[in-house]
């Protein structure tokens, strides 16, 4: 028996990806293996670690808990889509990305894409968080390397950079 | 050195690719190759069983399945057990598993069958259709069951004892018998695991055009994997390349090798003629990758009125799981590093390393030191309590003094070398810690809190960590004609920022711009001689090798430049990649020196014209001198006589809820001495991460096995790895720098430090918080949960309320 495939049009980072996937294909796998966007990482496949977090219509979503076929018509943003256009081919780091670099908010980098997307959405909602609010913002994501100290600093620094740039 | 980057907080170069989603981890590789196949593994659902039949008939019909292998499909070296990596004379009953189980399974999670299919979903469908018949055998779960030995893990291992090892300096039992005071303690630590965010993974591709096998693996040792793959697959070493791409954390578990999949994936790639990938999922990581930590300890200590330890006798039992691929490294480290910064006059240690029907045990960050530190520091606290002395005073009495280095313990360390500490200043570290945490002011704080009905306690713990174990690491430095510097070292990287820290060393030593240096790690094509990244050794070993190799390249650059500039070598300096004669305008770029170093027959650009044989050289001499070679390169190896010993001390203030026994961290302080710091930002990041991992180990994380050997919490839902909400809001860190005399940069390892004293320091602080109310309560087992603390309270009598009021007045 062969698995039925569905034609799915995914809108990711402003581009359209036409993919053929079975109904059970996770969005995380579709992004990584069908769209070639390997910046989204899979850490637990049961929605606990947050490494696979992407933005679906601007809201953080665990892409391992969503099927690719359910993401039709949604605007998806992955870590690759966070950089801001400038006159360089690679683009400028977003405030959140820059803050992580400034504050040593990452070590192995595996959980980082999920934090970056989560904080990007978090700062849209609350552009000037207190330290406690910064902690709350990242309280659903796991990191095994940093001990979170510098990730909290990165959230606060990102808010500053956002201010400086606007 | 004019541009001094060593010791500064240089931002990490690797961050750019990680932040842009352009890291390349093993599961990211070959994703656009339509020929790529995916593997899945059938794992034992039972802890101990005999396999009576495996029926794969239903699998072959599944569309998209290309191979199903069981033990019977393996031949030659692949049909032999996996290697026992670190043999030891006392490991008399070492056992390792087969790549796929042969006749018997000894832990839940052991690999039984290997399926290759067009994608992972299909491969998992196929795994679900394999039918295995088992005869269940009684499982041995936990140290008590292993010691009881009424059931055996392996029929041919009597008593479940893999090894028994004893070391003694002096006569500990006699000293204890003669001592004015003695104490006995029973101390337990439970199982836990590294749980990096990325599990294991391997990709392999066989290239029939060049007859070469390329293996990418998420490992802590590329060269180790390469050696195993070549040996097991019957290939010449020269046919196998192993590349470690970006790795999503290791913490020790990825130093063990070869995992079954590290051999089966390359074998499948060769057999099927298509690239194959295996990516471990989270549940697989819990049940088939390694654990650590579980030990039971019995301590006898004899001491004098000052608390000076006259004799220390430690017996402990180490749970090494179902097999012993990594030898006895963990219990050997416990048995030696238990001593910490102290010098007991007589010390005896004996351990048994025991088989259980649970996941194998290999080093996890700290590697036996957290247990050793827990044992020693609990003992120090018990002595202080017995004598009614301040806990810092008892420790001071037992410290090795700064003028006693090098200090010889009279024991053999994990590298087979004498346990000899190279440097440190423990009294100075303790003073710093007391200031940092406010040790002397704590009783006022306790009284203030008690007046509000709050319970607080303070604890401290000291450790010494042997880092930078041998045998060696090497480096190759190549200055290209562009002036760019390409550096390769063979050990791997799992997030430690090696591309930055090592480039800092090169920039300083060679005199080039940091931006011009590119570091490659863990690629056997570029550096085939290497050991691996473990035991806090990367900075010490590869850092030193890179420094030495850079010196060699510099030496050659100066020799060629001196000739070109007609100046004496001593008058030259190299700054930002330009060699110049001090005090003059005469200069030459390192890139041009590289051109001159390689006499050419063919010009391919303007720069190379200058190096053709009609342009340079003395016609009376060979173009390359007899004792020289072409190219501007330097290669060297660093192989120290013995390990270098870093040290540190942690203190924590906790609050325990009088009703719920919830444990809250109020303050965490660290004093750390790893010699000279290459990049303080990276070192502090390592400490912060280690402390968080230690908090997990002390208060939350444990492997919950039931009596049948089922791991009940094999997910991040149930294994309580800390989120930001569980770690201290701040960690106060202070450094002491006592340089190591054993390496040219004076550095010591820093990677494991943060996690070592956690169990000890939390046990001490929680006990200290409880003692005013429950004077007999002792924390002797870690980790500890609020409910366990609650139960402990119930088991001990209260101090009468009037007495507490008196005390706090």
TrEMBL record, chain A:
Keyword line: 2Fe-2S, Iron, Iron-sulfur, Metal-binding, Oxidoreductase
Domain 2Fe-2S ferredoxin-type span(s) in chain numbering: 6-82
Pathway annotation: Alkaloid degradation; nicotine degradation
One Gene Ontology MF term: 2 iron, 2 sulfur cluster binding
Pfam families: Fer2, Fer2_2
Protein name: (2Fe-2S)-binding protein
Organism from which the protein derives: Nocardioides glacieisoli
UniProtKB/TrEMBL annotation, chain B:
Domain Aldehyde oxidase/xanthine dehydrogenase a/b hammerhead: 20-138
InterPro entries documented for this protein: Ald_Oxase/Xan_DH_a/b, Ald_Oxase/Xan_DH_a/b_sf, Ald_Oxase/xanthine_DH-like, AldOxase/xan_DH_MoCoBD1, AldOxase/xan_DH_MoCoBD2, AldOxase/xan_DH_Mopterin-bd_sf
Keyword Amino-acid biosynthesis: no
Name of the protein in its database record: Xanthine dehydrogenase family protein molybdopterin-binding subunit
GO MF entry, a single one: oxidoreductase activity
Superkingdom of this protein's organism: Bacteria
Keywords linked to the UniProt accession: Molybdenum, Oxidoreductase
């Amino acid at each position: 028996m062969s698995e039925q495939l569905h034609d799915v049009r995914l809108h990711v980072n402003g581009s359209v990806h036409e993919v053929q996937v079975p109904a059970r294909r996770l969005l995380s796998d579709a992004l990584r293996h069908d769209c070639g966007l390997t910046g989204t990482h899979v850490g637990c496949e049961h929605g606990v670690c947050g490494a696979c977090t992407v933005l679906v219509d601007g809201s953080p979503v665990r892409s391992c808990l969503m099927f690719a076929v359910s993401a039709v018509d949604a605007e998806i943003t992955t870590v690759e889509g966070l950089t801001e256009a400038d006159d360089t081919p690679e683009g400028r780091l977003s405030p959140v990305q820059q803050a992580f670099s400034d504050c040593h908010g990452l070590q192995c980098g595996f959980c980082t894409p999920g934090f970056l997307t989560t904080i990007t959405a978090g700062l849209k909602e609350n552009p000037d968080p207190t330290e406690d609010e910064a902690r709350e913002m990242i309280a659903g994501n796991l990191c095994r390397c940093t001990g979170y100290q510098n990730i909290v600093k990165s959230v606060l620094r990102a808010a500053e950079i956002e201010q400086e740039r606007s | 050195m004019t541009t001094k980057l060593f010791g500064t907080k240089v931002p990490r170069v690797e961050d750019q690719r990680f932040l842009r989603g352009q890291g390349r981890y093993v599961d990211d590789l070959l994703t656009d190759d339509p020929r790529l196949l995916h593997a899945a593994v059938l794992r034992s659902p039972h802890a101990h069983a005999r396999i009576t039949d495996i029926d794969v008939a239903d699998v072959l019909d599944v569309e998209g399945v290309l191979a199903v292998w069981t033990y019977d499909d393996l031949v030659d070296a692949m049909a032999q057990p996996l290697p026992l990596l670190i043999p030891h004379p006392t490991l008399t009953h070492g056992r390792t598993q087969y790549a796929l189980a042969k006749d018997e399974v000894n832990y839940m999670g052991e690999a039984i069958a290997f399926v290759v299919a067009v994608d992972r979903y299909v491969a998992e469908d196929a795994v679900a259709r394999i039918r295995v018949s088992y005869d269940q055998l009684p499982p041995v779960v936990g140290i008590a069951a292993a010691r009881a030995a009424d059931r055996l893990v392996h029929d041919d291992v009597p008593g479940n004892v893999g090894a028994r090892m004893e070391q003694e300096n002096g006569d500990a039992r006699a000293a204890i018998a003669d001592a004015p005071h003695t104490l006995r303690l029973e101390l337990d630590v439970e199982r836990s695991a590294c749980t990096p965010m990325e599990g294991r993974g391997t990709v392999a591709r066989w290239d029939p055009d060049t007859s070469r096998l390329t293996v990418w693996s998420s490992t802590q040792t590329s060269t180790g994997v390469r050696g195993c793959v070549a040996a097991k697959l019957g290939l010449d070493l020269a046919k196998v390349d192993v590349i470690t791409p970006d790795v999503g954390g290791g913490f020790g578990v990825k130093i063990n090798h070869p995992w079954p999949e590290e051999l089966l994936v390359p074998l499948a790639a060769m057999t099927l003629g298509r690239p194959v990938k295996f990516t471990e999922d989270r549940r697989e990581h819990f049940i088939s990758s390694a654990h650590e930590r579980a030990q039971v300890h019995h301590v006898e200590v004899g001491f004098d009125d000052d608390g000076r330890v006259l004799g220390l006798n430690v017996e402990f039992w180490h749970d090494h799981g179902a097999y012993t691929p990594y030898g006895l490294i963990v219990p050997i480290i416990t048995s030696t590093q238990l001593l910490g910064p102290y010098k007991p006059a007589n010390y005896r240690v004996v351990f048994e390393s025991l088989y259980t029907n649970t996941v194998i045990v290999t080093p996890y960050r700290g590697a036996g030191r957290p247990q050793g530190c827990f044992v020693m520091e609990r003992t120090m606290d018990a002595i202080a309590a017995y004598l009614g002395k301040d806990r810092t005073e008892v420790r001071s009495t037992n410290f090795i003094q700064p003028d006693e280095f090098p200090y010889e313990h009279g024991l053999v360390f994990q590298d087979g070398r004498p346990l000899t500490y190279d440097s440190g200043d423990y009294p100075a570290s303790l003073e710093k810690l007391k200031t940092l945490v406010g040790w002397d002011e704590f009783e006022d704080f306790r009284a203030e809190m008690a007046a509000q009905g709050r319970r607080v306690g303070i604890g401290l713990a000291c450790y010494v960590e042997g880092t930078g174990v041998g045998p060696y690491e090497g480096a190759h430095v190549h200055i290209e004609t562009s002036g760019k510097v390409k550096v390769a070292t063979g050990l791997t990287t799992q997030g430690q920022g090696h591309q930055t820290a090592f480039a800092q060393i090169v920039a300083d030593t060679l005199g080039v711009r940091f931006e011009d240096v590119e570091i490659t790690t863990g690629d056997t094509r570029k550096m085939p001689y290497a050991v691996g990244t473990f035991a806090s050794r990367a900075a010490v070993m590869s850092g030193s090798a890179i420094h030495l190799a850079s010196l060699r390249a510099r030496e050659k650059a100066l020799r060629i430049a001196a000739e070109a500039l007609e100046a004496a070598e001593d008058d030259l300096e190299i700054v930002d990649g330009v060699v110049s004669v001090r005090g003059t305008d005469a200069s030459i770029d390192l890139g041009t020196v590289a051109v001159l170093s390689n006499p050419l027959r063919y010009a391919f650009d303007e720069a190379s014209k200058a190096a053709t044989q009609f342009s340079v050289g003395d016609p009376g001499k060979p173009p390359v001198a007899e004792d020289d070679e072409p190219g501007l390169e330097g290669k060297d190896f660093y192989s120290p006589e013995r390990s270098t010993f870093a040290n540190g001390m942690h203190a924590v203030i906790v609050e325990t809820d009088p009703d719920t026994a919830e444990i809250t961290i109020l303050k965490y302080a660290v004093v750390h001495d790893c010699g000279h710091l290459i990049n303080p930002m990276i070192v502090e990041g390592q400490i912060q991460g280690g402390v968080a991992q230690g908090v997990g180990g002390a208060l939350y994380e444990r492997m919950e096995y039931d009596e049948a050997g089922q791991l009940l919490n094999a997910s991040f839902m149930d294994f309580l790895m800390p989120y930001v909400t569980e770690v201290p809001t701040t960690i106060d860190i202070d450094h002491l720098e006592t340089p190591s005399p054993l390496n040219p940069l004076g550095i010591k390892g820093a990677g494991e430090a943060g996690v070592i004293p956690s169990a000890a320091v939390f046990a001490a602080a929680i006990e200290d918080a409880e003692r005013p109310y429950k004077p007999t309560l002792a924390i002797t087992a870690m980790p500890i949960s609020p409910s366990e603390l609650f139960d402990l309270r119930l088991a001990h009598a209260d101090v009468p309320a009037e007495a507490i009021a008196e005390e706090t007045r």
